[in-house]
Amino acid sequence: MKKADLTISGILFLASIYLYYVADCIPTPDQFRDVGAGIWPKIILTCMILACIILFITTFRTKDDEKTLSGKEGMTHLLMPVSLCAFYVLAMKWVGFLVSSMIFSFVYMYFVGCRKKAAIVIISLAVPFLVGLIFLKLMYIPIPKGVGIFKTISEFFLTF
């Protein structure tokens, strides 16, 4: 499992560096030079780079006799979050940022082992709402609102 962790952290590290460069090339009007459209991807990618470095270091620090996931169980723990993220990105166009983020947060928190129902519900409802407000009101970055009833829901909650 060590070799797979090293490979994954290396690939994600290189991809994050490249995507950071791409985010740095996003054109930004002079009035938004400090907080432009590229700031949010840069923050996320910086966190990813740090996470890759931490994974790389902890991979060397773990002992071979520690319990690791392998076989079907290991693949499930790898593919489930990746599939969930892909579904989240694809669904956002139709159901909008708010609804898709709420569903994603709920399912992902349950998948990683959080069983406190109150915490799951509060975080799944509050965080997407707050992030949506930050994007719209502070950074002036539009978010996907979805179509039909989902657009109505997004507009209701994000228009203050």
Order of helices and strands: HHHHH
Specify the number of helices.
Answer: 5
Mean pLDDT: 81
The computed structural class is: mainly alpha
Rg, Cα atoms, Å:
18 Å
Through-space gap between termini:
50 Å
The share of residues in extended strands comes to under 5%
Which shape, going by the Cα principal axes?
A: globular
Give a count of the beta strands, DSSP E runs of length 2 or more.
0
Helical percent range?
over 70%
Please outline the major beta sheet.
none
Give start-end ranges of low-pLDDT stretches: none
User: Into how many domains do the coordinates divide?
Assistant: 2
Task: Give an overview in words.
With 160 residues, this protein is mainly alpha-helical. The chain has five helices and no strands. 74% of the residues lie in helices and 0% in strands. Helix 3 packs across helix 5.
Structure in a nutshell:
The chain has 160 residues and is mainly α.
